[in-house]
Amino acid sequence: AAARCGAAREGRGAAVPVTPAVPVTPGGNGNGMDAPSAAGLGGADPQLQRFIEVETQKQRFQQLVHQMTELCWEKCMDKPGPKLDSRAETCFVNCVERFIDTSQFILNRLEQTQKSKSAFSESLSD
Amino acid sequence: MESGFGSDFGSDFGSGSGGAGKLDPGLIMEQVKVQIAVANAQELLQRMTDKCFRKCIGKPGGALDNSEQKCIAMCMDRYMDSWNTVSRAYNSRLQRERANM
Which structural domain range is residue A76 located in? Predict the structure, then answer.
């Protein structure tokens, strides 16, 4: 579903819903990697290709952590204290989980509406 | 900067090949990793600065007073704690997703 949505990079302030780095819909590709083919990038060197795939994946993870930290900070942090209390910590964990849930929900529902209403996908391609 | 960051960024300021001047893929990969780590650190600092400015600075005065500085210091630590918490939580979720596939 992620590929079908044409989702690649997430950008700050982008109008498009953010796609997490992993295929979060059930039945996504098995290796958990959403990286585009590195064949063009690394040239013929398989070691370099592998390196690019791995680093790209790592970067997607990092970017999402940055983004979720920023979002969840707004929701979970009142006044910064001497330590992260357990209520705030729980909030951060919940926040991450709900963010991923939201992303999955959006992808799933988009997939469903595209399947059932061809009019929807036609209006999208405009 | 490395202590809180090292494992969470997956950065590895490892030995590198030390080859002088040759186009050694190992060296290139090490350099790229370093650049990525630097970029991540910059990103973190930028967001942390934004958040802590918002939390700690009310009406900007002529200088940062003591309470503002204390607040910023605590805010930085809490932001790092939050980042690490989010990173762990996200990692756990990814592993759970993969286990369910």
Answer: 2-125
